[in-house]
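[recover] target loaded
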């Protein structure tokens, strides 16, 4: 699901020079109306059946017709940029374009999957109006992403998916089970049983 007020352009995929056979590099540039002076470009390594891997990001000034006039991006502007949101938006656009090109649904990261799910189920939180709405959206994204990771781990035949996810997240299996319980209650658990 795109970021509110954002437009994405995706470049045609190119073969990855040093990647596995069939891997491709694709770039997506995000233009966000909330940050009209910059454009963020993300580069991804696309390998069949695997989530996209971010291999680079750049933020460029969009100052007028001449990109070298007043083309500075200050530290205060960088702190306010929603890079993670832009990354999820760019990933979703790349996955859609790759799927249209190949006729197959490429793998998407758990974070991008969670963004899409929460945006569709809770559209009122797509543009949070206050701190409470933003915290609720972030909490739902966290729960949905954890539930999706758990599902992916369990689908590999892992006997203790909660333990594996706990190790990845630096927490305990009981905390992971609490997240799954809350994700089910909120309706963002996906296929978690």
């Amino acid at each position: 699901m795109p970021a509110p007020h954002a437009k994405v352009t995706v470049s045609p995929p190119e073969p990855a020079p040093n990647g596995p056979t069939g891997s491709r590099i694709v770039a997506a540039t995000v233009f966000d109306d909330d940050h009209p002076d910059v454009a963020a470009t993300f580069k991804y390594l696309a390998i069949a059946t695997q989530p996209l891997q971010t291999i680079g990001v750049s933020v460029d000034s969009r100052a007028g017709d001449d990109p070298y006039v007043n083309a500075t991006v200050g530290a205060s502007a960088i702190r306010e940029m929603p890079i993670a949101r832009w990354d999820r938006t760019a990933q979703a656009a790349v996955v859609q374009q790759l799927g249209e090109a190949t006729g197959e649904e490429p793998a998407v990261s758990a974070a991008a999957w969670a963004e899409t799910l929460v945006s569709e189920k809770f559209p009122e939180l797509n543009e949070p109006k206050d701190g409470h709405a933003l915290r609720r959206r972030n909490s739902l994204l966290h729960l949905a992403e954890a539930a999706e990771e758990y599902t992916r781990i369990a689908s590999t035949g892992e006997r203790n998916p909660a333990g594996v996810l706990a190790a990845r997240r630096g927490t305990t299996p009981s905390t992971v089970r609490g997240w799954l319980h809350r994700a089910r209650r909120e309706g963002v658990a996906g296929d978690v049983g």
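[recover] notes: The two ends are 25 Å apart (CA to CA).
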